[in-house]
Amino acid sequence: MSPARFAACLLILALLLPGAARGEESASGEKEIRIRMLWLPQAEFAGFYLAQEDGLFEKEGLRVRIDHPEKGGEDVLSMLDRGEADFVVTWLSSALQRTTGNGRFVNIMQIHQASALVLIARKADGIRTPADLSGKRIGLWFPPDLRNPFLCFLRKEKIHDAELLPVLSPVNLLLFRCTSVIGGVEYDECSKLYFSGINRDEISVFRLNDAIPDLADDGLYCLKKTWQTSPDVCRKIRRAVMAGWHSAFADKDRALRIVKKNCDRSGVFFHKIYQKNMLNVMERLFQAETNDGQLRRASFEQGMEAAGVPADSVRFEEFAPEDLK
Q: 129 and 110, same structural domain?
């Protein structure tokens, strides 16, 4: 090959590869928007699946790709920082803890208006009220942003002498009596215990919302610079996802079929009863009749408390801009 032809080939590769490697633009130049879920495919994200299945993103003029981690518990906020995702789903308390000081994350949609976080205890160990948690061993997820809401609950209930055990998967610890109490979410750990043969009357379930009434979980986040440079895209994403959730609750059987399709695509086992229960809990958390997607100030303030960050370290107006409506 002559030097001139070799140089021409290099030039062609230089022009073609950047777009192909990133996968960010279509032939028409339309940017692909990457939304990263917090966990593996499940009914917790049904609204996103419905928005994609029903072409709601396309109706807004957007080309969206929904991604999931290969395993649960991925640090999705770091993916925003690294430019590996444009929008991510994560807990309110997690986003607030990571936003302090620099205000780099923006809540463009508060999906859950309540919390599914719970402490689960064996009644056989004498635990029937929050006061009975005193002196007990409690298994909690070890990342600080995941355990902080539980610590806030314990402080509210004046429990200062519990033994905290950092764990990855808490259910087995309770099943094999390694702990008396575990932290979890109502639609996951509680369901797994029931499916493992634990009767409902054998356990005490303490909802964090009982002590922290305005605490909320899942929200949709982007970098502050994304909101500043592409506010219309943020609004369109929010409208499409809101509509997707309303569609999911309007026809739950269809929503579950679409959830299964996403599970199958990722090689994730689909348990219909488990996923149906999760979708029902999502409906309670979403609060469709009053949810306009805006983070409430009360939830913001209690999220700050649950995250264990100073009250003046994040400005509500910057974290959840009202002109997203």
A: no
Are the beta carbons of 109 and 325 closer than 8 angstroms?
no
- Nearest C-alpha neighbor of 76 from the set 222, 252, 278: 222
CATH of the domain at 100: 3.40.190.10
Of 159, 189, 210, the one marking the end of a domain is 210
237 and 318 in a single domain? The answer is yes
Q: Are residues 320 and 228 in the same domain?
A: yes
Four-CA torsion 141, 189, 218, 102, nearest 10 degrees: 0
* Pairwise CA distance, residues 241 & 302, whole Å: 25
Task: Return the pLDDT at 325.
Answer: 64
Q: Which residue has the tokens 């290969």?
A: 70
Q: Residues 238, 311: one domain?
A: yes
SS3 content of the chain, % helix, strand, coil (to 5): 50, 15, 30
pLDDT for the residue 100: 72
266, containing H or E segment:
helix 252-266
**pTM (two decimals):** 0.89
